[in-house]
Automatic annotation (TrEMBL):
It holds the Pfam family LRR_8. GO terms for molecular function: ATP binding; protein serine/threonine kinase activity. It comes from Brassica carinata (Ethiopian mustard). Its EC number is 2.7.11.1. Residues 239-372 form the Disease resistance R13L4/SHOC-2-like LRR domain. It comes from the Eukaryota. This is non-specific serine/threonine protein kinase. Its main location: membrane. One of its GO terms (cellular component) is membrane. Transmembrane segments: none annotated. InterPro entries: Leu-rich_rpt, Leu-rich_rpt_typical-subtyp, LRR_dom_sf, LRR_R13L4/SHOC2-like, Plant_RL_S/T_kinase.
Amino acid sequence: MLALASCRLTGPVPSQLGRLARVQSLILQDNNLEGPIPAELANCSDLTVLTAAANRLKGTIPADLGRLENLEILNLASNGLSGEIPSQLGELSQLEYLNLMENKLQGPVPKTLADLKNLQTLDLSSNNLTGEIPEEIWNMSQLLDLALANNIFSGSLPKSEVPAEISRCQSLKQLDLSNNSLTGSIPESLFQLVDLTDLYLHNNTLEGKLSPSISNLTNLQWLVLYHNNLDGTLPNEITALKKLEVLFLYENRFSGEIPKEIGNCTSLKMIDLFGNHFEGEIPPSIGTLKELNLLHLRQNEFVGGLPATLGNCHQLKILDLADNQLSGSIPSSFGSLKGLEQFMLYNNSLQGSLPDSLSNLKNLTRINLSHNKLNGTILPLCGSTSFLSFDVTNNEFEDEIPLQLGNSPNLDRLRLGKNQFTGRIPWTFGKIRELSLLDISSNSLTGTIPLQLVLCKKLTHIDLNNNFLSGPIPPWLGKLSQLGELKLSSNQFDGSLPTELFNCTKLLVLFNETVIS
C-alpha cells in the first residue's frame, strides 16, 4: 500500500509509480497534484484500490486503466478531467466502486459500464455528459448507488415498456438522476425497486402524476422531485412510507389536498411543497410529526385556519405558510415551538392579536407576518435577540413599538410600515449596528428622529413617510454615508434642509414629496 492522502503534495503524478508492479493500494486523494494521470499506472497489475480524488488533475482518463483486472475501487472525483469516459473501463471485471463525479467529462455514458457485474456504486454526477442514459445500466444487478446528477442527459427515463430491465436493479438503494434534461413521466417500473432509500429526480422536466405504486417503496427515506412539471394529486398511498424523512415536491404543478393521514409518515423531518396548487386545509395530523424541523407550504392555495396541532412539532425550525389564503388567528400553541428560527405567514388573511406565548420563541432569526389583518401589540414577537429580518408590514398593529426590538444587534431589515403604531421611534434602534433598512412609514408616530440612529452606519434605506414626526431634520443624517434612500414626506418637520445631507453621495431618493412645513 502507498497511502499519501492529505499530504499537501504538489506537481504531477510521477509516471515512475508504474514500476510498483506489486502495489495493491495507491491512495493520492486530497492533495494538490496536477497534470495528467500517467498511463503507466496500468502496469500496477496487482492494484485493487486507486484513489486520486480532490486534486487538480487534468487531461483524459487513460484507456489503459482498463487493464487493471484486479481493481475494485477507482475514485477520480473532484478533479478537472475531460474528454470521454473510456469504454475500456467496462473491462474492470472486479470493480465495485467507480466515482468520476465533479470533473469535466463529456460525451455519452459507455454502454460497456453495464458489463461491470460487481459494481455497487456508480457516480458520474456533475460532469457534462450527454445523450440518453443507456438502458443497459439497468442490467447491473449488484448496483446499490447510482448518481448521474448534474449532467446534460436528454430523453426519457426507461419506459414502463421495459420493466424487465429496470427491475433487474433490485438491489438499488440510491438513485440520483437530478439536474439533467430528462422528460416524460416517472415509469411505473421504477416503483419495483423496493430497496430504494433515496430517490432524486429534481431539476428535470418530468411530467405526469405520481403513481399510487409509490407505496411499494417502504424503505424510502428521501423523495426529492422538486422543479419538474409533475401534476395531479398527492396519492394517499404515500402515507404508507413510514421511513420517509424528506419530502421535497416544490415547484411542480401538484393540486388537490394533502392526504389527511400524512401524519402516518412518522419519520418525516422535512416537508417542502412550495409553489404548487395544493388546496384545502392543512392537515392537523402534521402535528403528530415529532421529528419535523421544516414545514414549507408557501405559495399554494390552502384555506382555513392554522392547525393548533402544529405547536406539537417541537423540533420545528422553519415554518413557512406564506402566500396562501389562510384565515383565523395564530394559535397560542405556537408558543411551544421554542426552537423556531424562521416564522413566515405573510400574504394571508390572518387576524386577531398575537398570543402572549409567542414570547417564548427566543431563537427566531427571521419573521414575516406582513400583509395580514393582525392587530394589537407586537411585544410577543420581541423575545428573541437574534433577529436578522423582521417584517410586519401592512397589518393593524397598534400601541408603541417595543424597545426590546432594538436588542438584536445583527438585525438587517426592519419593516413596520402601514400599521397603527403610536408613540416615539425607539431610541434602542441605535443599538442595531447591522441595520441597513428601516421602514416605519404610514403609522402614527410622533416626536423627533432619535439621535441614536447615527450609530447605524450601514443604513441604506430609511422610510419615515406618513407619520406625525416633528422638529428639525437632524444634520447628523449626513453622517450615514451608505444612505441611498431617505423618505421623510408627510410629517410635521420644521426648519431648513440641513446641508450635511449633501455628504450622502449615494443618495438616489431624497424625500419624495414636500417635507418641511
